[in-house]
UniProtKB/TrEMBL annotation:
Coiled coil: none annotated. It comes from the Bacteria. It holds the Pfam family DUF423. InterPro entries: DUF423 (IPR006696). It is a multi-pass membrane protein. It is found in: Membrane. The chain crosses the membrane at residues 41-63, 70-90, 96-117. Its main location: membrane. It comes from Psychrobacter saeujeotis. This is DUF423 domain-containing protein.
């Protein structure tokens, strides 16, 4: 059984680290578009890691399922990961998988809405 609160905390630590790296280390090494990709990836990582923290708490309280957590985590990896990779030099076609991550993030939130609605009936 995965401890989603711990996973969320790790994601948040990674978000802080990568945000600082983007603000200081790579700022002068990449162009404006790449830096924008980095900022977008960091923002989405932060927001969804916080969401994952809440979902972890809801799982413990019996209001949510692991499906929402997995969808968010895989979505974070694909969405933010592809943007980070492109910033660091991955080919532009790599961005074609970014929307897959976004769809998984949306699915995770919708699954949470459905499961919480079912539990609250």
């Amino acid at each position: 059984m995965v401890n989603w609160i711990s996973v969320a905390a790790i994601n948040l630590a990674i978000a802080v680290s990568l945000g600082a790296f983007g603000a200081h280390a790579i700022k002068s090494m990449v162009n404006a578009q790449q830096l924008d990709w980095w900022h977008t990836a960091t923002l989405y990582l932060f927001i969804h890691a916080l969401g994952l923290l809440v979902i972890g708490l809801l799982i413990r309280l019996g209001y949510a399922t692991y499906v929402s957590a997995w969808l968010l985590q895989i979505g974070i990896i694909i969405f933010a990961g592809s943007l980070f990779a492109m910033t660091l030099g991955a080919p532009r076609w790599f961005g074609a998988i970014t929307p897959v991550g976004g769809i998984l993030l949306i699915a995770g939130w919708l699954w949470l809405a459905i499961t919480v609605f079912k539990v609250s009936k």
